[in-house]
Amino acid sequence: MTDNAAALFDLHRPELLRVAYRMLGSITDAEDVMQDAFIRWAQADREAVRVPVAFLRRIVTRLCLDHLKSARVRREVYGGPWLPEPVVEEDPVEDVTLPLMLALERLSPLERAAFLLHDIFGESFEEIAASIGRDAAACRQLASRARVNIRMERHRYAVDRDHGMEIAEAFFRASRCEERGEGIANFGKLLAEDVVFHADGGGKRPAAARILEGVHDVARAFAAIGRLRHGPPGLVRYAFVNGLPGFVTREPDGMLQTTALLIEGRLIRAIYIMRNPEKLRHLEQAVY
User: What is the pLDDT of residue 285?
Assistant: First the structure.
C-alpha cells in the first residue's frame, strides 16, 4: 500500500470509527472492524474508486452488518442488562446518546444502518442502497420504520453542560452517603419517581440482574452496593459518558466504573452504570 493510501484511510478513520461504534455499541468490535476495513482498502483497486470516503463507509457498514448477525445472538444470552461500551469525553456529543444507542438495539441491523447513515451521517438513500444491498426505496422505508421505533429517545432531555456536571457531582456525593446509610433523603431528592437503573456487570462483576424502576428500589440497590464494597470508590473524573453527564470512579476492587445520568430539569430519570471489565478495558488503556 502506498503512503498516500494509508494516509487517506487515516484521514477518514475517526468518522469511520464513529459509524462502526454506533452500529455495534462496542469500541473493541469497532476497532476490529477498522482493521478489517483497512485490509480491504489495501486490497481494493483504488484507482477505480471515485469517492474514497463513500467506498470506505460502504466497507465498514457491510462489515458491521456481518458482525451484528452474531452479536445479536450473544446479547440474547448476556448476563444481566446490556449497555454499550462507554465513551468518555470532556464535552457532550449529542448525535447518539446512550438512551438512543439502547433504542437502536430494538432495530434490525438493516434498520439501524439505514437510520444511522441517513439521519446521523447524512448519506443519501442511493448511497445507503449501495452499502446494504437494498434499493433506495427500501432504504427509505427502513429508516422510516427505525424513526417510529426510536422517536421517544431521539432528542430527550438535552441538558446544559454546567448544569449536567452540577447534578453529576451532587449524585456522586449523595450516592456515597446513601451507600453508608446516611443520606437516603438527599439521595431520593435527586431522583424522579419513575427513575430506572441499569447496571452492566456482564456476569463478571456484581450488578443488578435486571433493570430496576422507582425511587425505592433504586435507593435499596445503592444501599446494597455500599454493603458489598470494602471501602468507598475513588473519583477519577467528572465527564460525559455517551453524551450524558456522569463520572468515572476507581472501585475498591481496583476496577474502573462509569456512571451516566439521564437528567430532566433537576431530576435524574435514568442511571447507567458500567461494571463489566471487558467493556472498560479501553479506558484502562487511556491511563485512568
Answer: 81
Can you list the pairs that 232-238 forms with residues at least 24 positions away whose Cβ atoms lie under 8 Å?
232/176, 232/179, 233/176, 233/257, 235/172, 236/288, 237/88, 237/288, 238/165, 238/168, 238/169, 238/172
Question: Domains of the chain by range and CATH?
Answer: 1-77 (1.10.1740), 96-156 (1.10.10.10), 161-284 (3.10.450.50)
Of the listed ranges 75-89, 134-148, 162-176, the least confidently predicted one is 75-89
Per the structure block, which three cell numbers stand in for 28?
Answer: 473493541
Backbone torsions φ then ψ of 204, nearest 5 degrees:
-110, -20
From 128, 130, 122, select the one nearest 142 (Cα to Cα). 128
Do the Cβ atoms of 258 and 274 come closer than 8 Å?
Answer: yes
Intra-chain end-to-end CA distance of the chain, in Å = 35
**Calpha distance 210→197 (Å, rounded):** 9
pLDDT tens-digit series, residues 139-169: 999 999 999 988 766 656 678 889 999 999 9
DSSP 133: T
